[in-house]
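Appendix B: complex inputs.
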Amino acid sequence: MILEGFKEAIALLFSLDREIYSIIGLSLAISLLATLSGGLLGIVFGIFLSISKFPGKRMVKKIIFTFMGVPPVVLGLIVLLVLAGPLSNLNLLFTRTAMYLAQTLLVFPIVTGNIIISSEKTQQQIIATATTLGASKKHQLLLLFTETKPFILLSLILGFSRAISEVGAIMLVGGNIRGETRVMTTYIALNTSMGNYAASIAMGTILLLLAFMIHTIIAKFRGDFYD
Amino acid sequence: MIKLENVKTSYPNFSIVYPNVTFAKHKITFVTGKNGVGKTSLLKAIAGLIPYEGSIDYQGFATYHFQEPILFNRSVYENIIYPIKIRKLPIENYQANLMDYAKVLGIHELLSRPAKALSSGEKMKVSMLRSILFLPDILLLDEPTTHLDLESIEQLVALIKQLKSKITFIIVSHNKAFIESLQDATYALGGHHVYR
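Resulting structure:
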């Protein structure tokens, strides 16, 4: 069956089936957009939390770390309740925008938390060193971005991995509507539930190949942590 | 000259009160005392890195050199000229001094190397040169002989002697030989903790 799945994966990829390509395209587009927006917010907030001091900072960090591990389906439920309740007049439920919002909310704490975990101390040391050398606030921030680039990139990779592999939240808020909100993971979930294991394995293989390709492209920019 | 009056640094459970003192310009003063008496805090307070009560008066720019310095992810040369670059000073005016000081410290052949790839001792010397080249008015060195072998300490002594007429040095060190070879004055700390 697994072998059959791989054969079907190759067949699917070269099938020229528009539905398959649109599913792959939608998965990539939403995940990349969510990584971009959630990631950008996460980078700024992660750096701010790393280098600033304010009352309640520990609590904010605890909340971020909690949300790093929140089950996507729970977050999806929150987004669903908001979109179906206070924001129901926007008619966003079961749309691609709702999926993008849910994924952005999933990516944001991953990027924020990972930047704090991986580089908080380094960031503080860089700021302190730059201060002693007479760097202005502008120069300090510039230095911070260049020096923490590997950590930022790693955090974005983690954020994207979370987004592209996500199923629970987008199933709830997107509805897995054929031709509209169906993405690779919800396609796999649906086919598995219907017993079409070969189709699921096929799409799973494509998903893995895509993730591998994206990591390969990123490795071109920054190879150190792949060594 | 640096004048300290009623300076106090505070921590969650205690404060450190510093005796009033005036550090002479272009002299090398060693701050001595046991571990925990507040030597590093004093240097950081002078550099404005930590809050303090009282007054610390001096003219010019004071730079603090960390005991465990951080080098930036770029070449040794780029690290050393960083303070020159951010001040938009003409780098060519500093090239001769850079080579001269780098030779004294024995790091002139490392200039094109990535800074992160250096040994701890080499990193210490590169960081020291980065703090020195732009000629700050006051240089606060925190345990500068950490990670340095005997030959490197001698190189550092030579460089500090060479720069004494241009920079006021305040140094924290436990290395007796190093202190004896450089000291003009000593500022002894101890017994000034106020526990809450």
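The mean pLDDT of chain A is 88.
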